[in-house]
Amino acid sequence: MNNLVLLVALPLITAFLLPVINRVSAFAGRWSGPLILLITSVLGISLWSQLGDSAVAVELGGFRPPLGITLYADQMAILFAVAASLGTLLLWPNGGADPVRQSTLALILAASGSGLALSGDLFNIYVFYELVAVVSYGLIAGKATSGSYAATMRYLVVSSFGAAMALTGIALVYQATGTLNLAQLAQLAPTQLNNIQGLAAFVLMLIGFGVKAELFPVNTWVPEVYATAPTRISALLAGVVSKLALLIIVRLLVLVFHQPEALTVMLVLGIMGVVSGELAAWRARDFKRMLAFSSIGQLGIMFIAFSIPGKAGVFAGLAVALHHLVVKPALFLLAERWSGSISKLAGAAKTSPLAAGLFVLLALSLIGVPPLPGFWAKLLVLVELSQQAQALYYLGAFVILAGAALEANYLFRVASRFYLTEKGQTAPATHRMPELATASLLCAALAGSVLMLTPLAEQIEDIASQAADAAHYIQTVNPETLP
Amino acid sequence: MTPLDHLLLLSALTVVVMLLIGNRQAAGWTATVLYAAQGVALLLMSGLGYGTTAAIESAVTFQVLEQALHWRFDALSWFFALITIGAALLSSWFSAGEWAQAYRRRGGSLRIFHSALALNVFSMLVLLASGDLLSLFIGWELVSWASFLIMALGGATANRYALRYLSYAFAGAMAVLGGLALVYSLVGSFQFQALKAAVPSMDSASLWLLFALFGAGFGVKMALLPFHLWQAKAYAETPGPGAAFLGAISSRMGLFAIAIVLVQLIGIARLVDMPVPFSFLSARDLLSWIAVFTIILPTFTALRQHDARRLLAWHGIGQGGYMLLGLLIADDLGSAGGLMHVFNHATYQAMLFMSVVAVIHRTGTSDLNQLGGLVARMPLSFVAMLIGIIGLAGLPPMNGFVSKWLVYRSLILDGSPLLFLGAVIGTLGTILSVYKLIHNTFLGQLRLEHEHIEEAPLSMILPMMILSAVVFITGYFPGLVLDWVAAAQTSIGLPPLAHHLGGVATEKGGLDMIWIVSILLAGFAVGTLVFFSGNRHKRVHQLDNYAGGHFLTAETRYQYSDNFYPGLMHLIGPWYRKSFRWFERGLVSVVDTVSLAMQGLYRPVHPSFYLLVVVVSALSWAVTQ
User: Fold this and answer.
1) Residue burial B170-197, b: 16+ Cβ < 10 Å; e: rest
2) Where are the alpha helices (DSSP H) in A256-369?
3) Dmax of chain B from CA atoms?
4) Strands B67-73, B545-547: parallel, antiparallel or unpaired by DSSP?
């Protein structure tokens, strides 16, 4: 289990060596990044299979917490660490002005993403979060156009404000408890953070980490960045990085902040996210912007789902998150050649029938048409929502349903345009092979999961119940402190 | 593998085969044969249809998210499946010959058309087989998307209406899904039995919510008011035989779902117990009045249509109102009438659409102002349309009369004279507009450009003739259909109708169509005999004619089609306000405005401003605490 640290260290070291490697051999420079990510992904999967029912905590350098750095690996953490590696591998930034720099940044993104998923204390989480942020500025600006610079600049402003707020929240927590280790916080929280200061800390951290998780109202950077960034980076940010930020918030909720108000805040912001995202997407006339707004809506659904107390919420939210993790990157990959105005996409099915077919499949799953996985995830969320006593949860269910109705409208407005040819219009360009292959792979995973729905659901439920078990976390990290 | 699995497999196989060979010349015939095979598979289960065997379960079950999904066929499913497969068989036959070649010449893809039709049949069978609320919803979604697929095939205009349909249908589906979530929170299960058992103990508010969600969700498919705007145009623009199929059965899936959920599970008695606040109506009365307005308004909208396909499609909406009205009375006569009307309507509606498509095939138009006099060139299509409109208007000796009689009779017995009056007003509108249809298409003088038109090809004529025979025979011997209807009534917990081959004989009143039709035919026979034996008669050419005292020559042809019924329109014309269109547009504008505001939230200049607001409010909150 000491291999756990390799998930973070390997890509990080490779990233720093990459300029040197590239100097020696351009071939090695080109391929070492994907190779390392492949290795870490395989490593992560093998760790997953060793893991079983109980989680593992690793103390770096042998220092006991609270002094040492703790890595905590339960199934959910490894799942998202693998998602970070594998996602970066699949969405590896090819092309661009400076491939070596892009590769370096992508490797750091994978490393810090894994670190984010595995970290067991708030300080490391903050460090990795900042690292992800800084790396993503570089990646977003990879196109080196004025538009992308402007978008990056705005993203930078929002993101650093968010980081500052998260840091304030962490400071509040530290001030109240004197520790940043999550396991210790989990023990201290019921007595020392179950007050207004704890709530304030949570809200600050929610908004701070929410910047990456596309939480309303700190998601204003999303449409512009996704529309101007390289497609693969948009896919990576929308698909993987947003989920990593979400993971932190879920961990905080499970372990530290048990106030019902915390859940209510998240629920309200989630509802606002769905409403604003879906409505804005309905009106969007630019394909990538539409996907960006739709992603805001989907993240809103996840926030609503995670605001359901207990294991049920984690289960439902995780199902939606994993679904979105597969679907949104694939959609962005298809958008590579379809960026710009939707009205220019007429007849796209003639030139790239496979891509159009994949889009229809993805759209159907996204809006939740049975028997595709998106439906089951949505059903799960709705069923859990309907069992809550608070009326606000019913509002959440209503908003999800209404949002899906809008989503069906705008996604199929696009899809039906693909299959119509207008006179005197040139069909958009065909897709490049790498994008199409990756999107097909993701679609195959999606379609394949229909066949193994039941084992998959059981697996996710396992992950959720492990992740929602705060006592298990404390026990794993600090065996002797638990009575 | 049970017989139900065979049927579903065969239906799925049809989809696959059509995907593989749908572009071949013989695809249409292959599809027809495969639908016939499905028909045979269905007939092997005919014990269900007559209520002699118990429900057949499918061997396929799923366990997803701790929910058991299963599928089964009972008498009601069998009855609807019979109509579905019959409509598919004849529509596919109709499409197999010359129509397919013409469709391909126009640039349509036969592969997609045939696959879409097969997919529609398959999804409908899956829906009809649903054994719990979750499988009902899955079938519901499949049917919605399959309909969307076949509607969207007809080019840009069709696409626009198909998208409009999709907006309505998916919103409806989401209402149903909301209903499902509500059922789960109240009952803790998606099984029919569990819901049925829990209904008596439910409080009025949640029952109202359930009623509204399911009623609206399923009502969208039936195009109940106020969700009716999508249907006529979407059906009309569907490629010809597809329109015949959809018009015959597609929106009846909504009736099927209502029969299952509102009639079988919640129960009409419970609906009667739910008073509408601040009024003297119950939930059932509310729905009945919606049904009556669904009869009246779309039927009179049909009266104003200039396109034969739209005219028929608007009638389809109106006729759905009769079915719902009959079903809601829930006594033996009324519900039998409602269910029988599903069968009857499917037969004549498919035939009418086919007749119109045959005319389009020959003349290239269905514009009622550009046709006329075709009876001399297309006599068999004329006969089909004539029989069809008699059925649609609900006049003897066709089958539409029987079902409408049953509905009327039970409305009177039920003590609902106003509902009865509404239904009769609807029938009046039907008679007026079907006369317009047949007059403007087939009667009057032949247009110059149609001089050289021939009768539709045999591949189109034969299905129409078969349907004519069905419409007539089931009007002559309604007991044939009432057998199935009575079994279906029993399966959803309604009292079965006591009937015999010629009609009904209950203490509430009797109807013997064998007598009525025989006397009618005898009267015709006597009249014909007198006409041909006694009088001098001469054969008059179609153009040898006069109007208003003017002789008409072959140069100035008499064609009275534009501004039909001017006197009537003078009276009721101002009533057409397009209020629903106005409402729909208003709704879209509201959503558009709100979404504009939401997009405004994401304007690139705003982020720093928001952050300032968020920070200041968070800080001030923290300080004041």
Assistant:
1) bbbbbbbbbbbbbbbbbbebbbbebbee
2) 260-283, 287-306, 311-335, 348-351, 353-367
3) 109
4) unpaired
Asked if residue B289 lies in contact with residue B419, where contact means CB atoms within 8 angstroms, the answer is yes
**Is the predicted pLDDT of residue B555 greater than 80, yes or no?**
no
DSSP 8-state symbol, B265: I
Chain A nearest-CA residue for B173: A405
- Cβ neighbours of residue B161 closer than 8 Å, sequence gap 6 or more: B151, B230, B233, B234, B237
pLDDT by residue (tens digit) across B300-332?
A: 999 888 899 999 999 999 999 999 999 998 888
Share of chain A above pLDDT 70, in %: 95
pTM: 0.92
What is the overall mean pLDDT for chain B? 88
Query: Does the CA dihedral B494-B495-B500-B502 come out positive or negative?
Result: negative
The CA distance from A264 to the nearest CA of chain B, in Å, is: 16
- Closest Cα of chain A to B227: distance in Å? 15
What value does the mean pLDDT take over residues B163-185? 92
DSSP B165-216: HHHHHHHHHHHHHHHHHHHHHHHS--BHHHHHHHGGG--HHHHHHHHHHHHH
* Segment (H or E) for B320: helix B308-329
Chain B residue numbers with beta carbons less than 8 Å from the beta carbon of A288 are none
Q: Is B109 an 8 Å CB contact of chain A? A: no
Interchain contact B611–A (C-beta under 8 A): yes
pLDDT number for residue A66: 60
The answer to whether the Cβ–Cβ distance between A282 and B615 falls below 8 Å is: no
- Phi, psi for B550 (deg, rounded to 5): -100, 130
pLDDT, mean of residues A355-368 = 91
**Mean pLDDT in residue range A90-101:** 78
Instruction: For chain A, count helices (H), then strands (E).
Output: 21, 2
Given a contact cutoff of 8 angstroms between Cβ atoms, the answer to whether B257 and B218 are in contact is: yes
Report chain B residues whose CB lies below 8 A from the CB of A375: 141
Residue A200 backbone phi and psi in degrees, to 5: -60, -40
- Residue B614: list chain A partners with CB under 8 A: 165, 207, 217-218
Q: Across the A/B interface, how many CB contacts are shorter than 8 Å? A: 144
Helix axes A75-90, A453-467, angle to 10 degrees: 120
From CA B599, how far away is CA A403, in angstroms rounded?
15
Rg (CA), chain B: 26
Task: Check CB contact under 8 Å for B625 and A420.
Answer: no
Nearest Cβ partner for A420 among B159, B170, B178? B159
Distance from the B182 Cα atom to the nearest Cα atom in chain A, whole angstroms: 6
What crossing angle do the helices spanning B458-476 and B379-393 adopt, rounded to 10°?
30
CA nearest neighbour of A32 among A103, A101, A88? A103
Mind listing the pLDDT tens digit for each residue in A258-296?
A: 888 888 889 999 999 999 999 999 998 888 899 999 999
B166 with A409: Cβ contact below 8 A = yes
In tens, the pLDDT along B188-230 reads 888 999 999 998 888 888 899 999 999 999 999 999 988 999 9
Q: Which of residues 287-326 of B touch A (CB under 8 A)?
A: none
| B120 — pLDDT class (breaks 50, 70, 90) | very high
- The distance of Cα A339 from the centroid of its chain, to the nearest Å, equals 22
**Window B:125-154, CB contacts with A under 8 Å:** 137-138, 141-142, 145, 148, 152
> Which residues share a beta bridge with B63?
B68
